[in-house]
Design brief:
Helix content: 25-40%
InterPro entries: GH (IPR017853), Glyco_hydro_5 (IPR001547), Glycosphingolipid_Hydrolases (IPR052066)
Keywords: Glycosidase, Hydrolase
Distance between the termini: 19 Å
Family: Belongs to the glycosyl hydrolase 5 (cellulase A) family.
Radius of gyration: 24 Å
Pfam families: Cellulase
Largest sheet: 8 strands, parallel
Protein name: Cellulase family glycosylhydrolase
Structural class: alpha/beta
C-alpha cells in the first residue's frame, strides 16, 4: 500500500481526467474504478429567452459559477441544457454562434475538473405554443416548427401545476404527438419531417460543440441526454404507455445513438429517459413504463430518469414533511430497472422548491432524496442490513441558477409580463444557489444537504455506503442514521458529528478510492477509522501510508480523502468530523467485527 499524492500539473485533479464509460452496470473510469457523478443542472436559465437559451449571461459568469459550485458543494458533474429552438432558429440554418457559446460555457466547467453531460431540453414542447397572456410557458422546438404545425389555441383549463399541460393542453398534446409520429410539414426550406429534423439539428449541434472543445474538455464530457422528459402527447387507438415506449420512444433513442456515432460521439453513452410518468408518485399522473418491453440497453446507453415528490409539492397530498426512508422505494425502483437493463443508472433531476408554499418541506425532502441516492436502506435499517445497501446512484439536482431572483424574462415574449423572481419559469423556485447583494454565490438551502460526503471513485465495487449529514430543518437537527449501541467506541468517537461509512471490495488497482470531504470536515478536524489504518486530524496524518488527504487547486482546505490499497479484499472506512476522544483502535475493532459479520471476508 502507498500514499497517493498529486504529482504536478498533469495530476491536478488526481485521475479525474480519466475517461468514463459504462461497464458492469456502473460508471467506471479507465482505472476500473466505480465513479459516482454528483452535481446540478445548469440551468433553468437555458429554458428562457433572457440569455438566448444559454445557462449564463457570459462565459465569465459560467466560470465563476463553476468555481462556486465546486467550492460550495464539491460537485464533480453537471447536466448542461441546450435547446432545439436556439440550435436551429430557421429551417436548415444552424446557429453556430450559439453553439460556440455553449462550448465555451461547457469548458468553464471542464476547466474546473467538473464532468458534463449534455441535455437536449424541452418542457411542454415549445414556448411558441403559448399565447402572450398564458399562465404557462414551455421550451424546446423552434417557432417555425410550431408555425408549420398549425396547432390549436393552447389552454390547460383549471391546471394548478404547469406539468398538467402535458395531458390537458390540446396544443401541447397535438404537437408532441406529431413529433413522435414524424409528421411532415411545409417550411420555407421545403417539406420536413419533424422528428427527423430534430435528429439532424442535434447531430449538427454535437458535431460543432465537439469541434470547439479541447481534447481535455471533450474527455470530461460523459454523454448526452437525447430529450428531456419524453411523453406521448396522446396515444394511438389501442396503444398503451408500454407499447409507446417500445414502438416510438426506443426507436428514437436508437436513431439518436446512431446520430451520435456519425458525428464523433461513438465513445459516449446516450443517457436515455423512459416515459416521464413511469415513476410518478401522484396516482392520477402515473403510467406504466421504465423500458419494461425493450431489449437490454447495454454499455452504450445509460438508464436516465427523474424523480420529484409531487405529493410533497402539492401541499395537499402530503401534508407533513419527509421522513427517514421515505424515498428508498422510489430510488430502488430506478436501481432495479437499470440493473435489469444491464447498464448504469442516473437520476438527472430531483429536488424541491426552496421558496413558496411547500418550501418548509425542503430540508426533509432533499435529505430523504439524497439518502435514497446513497443507499437502498433507511437509516434505521442500515447497520443491521448494510449488505444490501449498494450501489450508490449518480445524480444531478435541479438546479444551479446564479440568476435566481435576478431574472428579467419576458414570459412568452410579453413585455407586460416580466418575470424577475425565482427561476422565472412557471413560478418555480428550485435553485440551490443565488447571488447575494455583494455579488457572491450563496446557497439557498442548508449547506449540509448539498455539500456531502460521497464516494467520487471506488477502486473496485461499492458494497455499502451511508452518510448522516445531520442537516437542519429550522432549529431541528435531523439525525436518521443512529449508530448502534453495540459500537460504544464508534458512538463516542462520532458524538454529534457528521459521519459516513463506505464498504468496498478492492480491485487491486493503483488508483485510489476517493471520497469528497465537505467543508464541514475542516482540516485537522476529520477522523478516519478504516481497515487501511486510522487517523485523527486528517490531513496532518503522516503515519501509515494507506490514508491521505489533498486539496484541489483554488479550493480552501482539504476536500478529498484518498484511500489506497492494491489488494483485492473487503475494506471499510468510517469518516467523521466528530470531536470525541475515544480510542481509534477500539473503534476500529468494533467496525471490523461488524464488517466481518455483515459482509464476510
Amino acid at each position: 500500500m502507498s500514499l497517493v499524492t498529486p504529482a504536478g500539473a498533469a495530476d491536478r485533479f488526481w485521475f479525474d481526467d480519466a475517461t468514463v464509460h459504462v461497464a458492469d452496470g456502473a460508471f467506471r473510469d479507465q482505472y476500473g474504478r466505480e465513479v459516482v457523478l454528483r452535481g446540478f443542472n445548469v440551468s433553468g436559465t437555458a429554458k428562457l429567452a433572457e440569455y438566448r437559451g444559454l445557462p449564463f449571461a457570459s462565459t465569465a459568469d459560467a466560470r465563476s459559477s463553476a468555481a462556486a459550485m465546486r467550492r460550495l458543494t464539491g460537485a464533480n458533474s453537471v447536466r448542461f441544457l441546450l435547446t432545439w429552438a436556439w440550435i436551429e432558429p430557421e429551417p436548415r440554418r444552424i446557429d453556430i454562434a450559439y453553439l460556440d457559446k455553449v462550448a465555451e460555457q461547457i469548458s468553464a466547467f471542464t476547466d474546473q475538473g467538473i464532468r458534463v453531460h449534455l441535455d437536449f431540453h424541452q418542457d411542454l414542447y415549445s414556448r411558441y405554443l403559448f399565447n402572450r397572456d398564458s399562465w404557462y410557458t414551455g421550451d424546446g422546438a423552434p417557432e417555425w416548427v410550431v408555425r408549420a404545425g398549425g396547432y390549436p389555441r393552447e389552454s390547460c383549463g383549471l391546471c394548478f401545476h404547469w406539468g398538467q399541460n402535458m395531458k390537458n393542453n390540446n396544443a401541447v398534446t397535438a404537437a408532441t404527438y406529431d413529433f413522435w409520429h414524424n409528421r411532415e410539414v411545409t417550411t420555407s426550406a421545403g417539406p420536413i419531417r419533424i422528428r427527423d429534423e430534430f435528429l439532424y439539428a442535434a447531430g449538427e449541434a454535437l458535431a460543432r460543440v465537439k469541434s470547439r472543445l479541447s481534447a481535455d474538455a471533450f474527455r470530461l464530457v460523459v454523454g448526452v441526454d437525447p430529450l428531456n422528459e419524453p411523453y406521448a402527447g396522446r396515444y394511438d387507438s389501442g396503444q398503451d404507455s408500454i407499447e409507446w415506449e417500445r414502438d416510438l420512444l426506443w426507436p428514437f433513442h436508437q436513431q439518436f445513438r446512431a446520430r451520435m456515432d456519425q458525428v464523433g460521439w461513438a465513445d459516449k453513452p446516450a443517457f436515455v429517459e423512459p416515459l416521464v410518468f413511469w415513476n410518478q408518485n401522484v396516482d392520477f399522473f402515473a403510467e406504466p413504463g421504465g423500458f419494461t418491453d425493450v431489449p437490454a440497453l447495454g454499455q452504450r446507453y445509460v438508464f436516465n430518469t427523474h424523480f420529484y415528490d409531487g405529493k410533497a409539492q402539492s401541499g395537499v397530498l402530503m401534508p407533513g414533511k419527509a421522513s427517514d426512508g421515505q424515498y428508498t422505494g422510489d430510488f430502488n425502483k430506478i436501481r432495479d430497472r437499470a440493473r435489469a437493463l444491464g447498464t448504469a443508472g442516473i437520476v438527472t433531476e430531483y429536488g424541491h422548491p426552496v421558496d413558496g408554499n411547500t418550501s418548509d418541506k425542503k430540508s426533509t425532502v432533499l435529505k430523504a432524496m439524497y439518502q435514497g441516492l446513497d443507499s437502498r436502506l433507511s437509516g434505521a435499517q442500515w447497520w443491521a442490513s448494510a449488505a444490501s445497501s449498494g450501489p450508490v446512484l449518480s445524480g444531478s439536482q435541479w438546479h444551479w441558477d446564479v440568476n435566481y431572483d435576478r431574472h428579467h424574462e419576458l414570459m412568452n415574449d410579453n413585455p407586460n409580463k416580466v418575470h424577475t423572481d425565482g427561476d422565472a419559469m412557471n413560478d418555480e423556485h428550485f435553485s440551490a444557489v443565488h447571488v447575494d447583494d455583494n455579488g457572491t454565490a450563496a446557497l439557498t438551502v442548508d449547506e449540509r444537504l448539498v455539500d456531502r460526503l460521497f464516494p467520487r471513485a471506488v477502486a473496485g465495487t461499492t458494497a455499502a455506503f451511508t452518510y448522516e449529514d445531520r442537516a437542519r430543518d429550522g432549529s431541528t437537527v435531523l439525525t436518521w442514521n443512529k449508530l448502534p449501541d453495540t459500537m460504544p467506541a464508534v458512538r463516542a468517537l462520532v458524538g454529534t458529528g457528521q459521519f459516513g461509512v463506505l464498504v468496498w471490495r478492492s480491485n487491486g488497482g493503483t488508483a485510489p478510492t476517493e471520497l469528497h470531504l465537505p467543508a464541514s470536515f475542516a482540516p485537522g478536524a476529520t477522523t478516519v477509522v478504516s481497515s487501511l489504518g486510522s487517523v485523527r486530524g486528517v490531513p496532518a496524518y503522516t503515519g501509515a501510508e494507506s490514508v491521505a488527504a489533498a486539496a484541489e487547486p483554488g479550493v480552501t482546505g482539504v476536500n478529498r480523502l484518498l484511500l489506497s490499497t492494491r489488494d483485492s479484499k473487503l475494506h471499510f472506512a468510517l469518516v467523521t468530523n466528530g470531536a470525541g476522544s475515544a480510542s481509534l483502535e477500539a473503534a476500529r475493532a468494533e467496525l471490523a467485527a461488524w464488517a466481518s459479520a455483515t459482509f464476510g471476508g
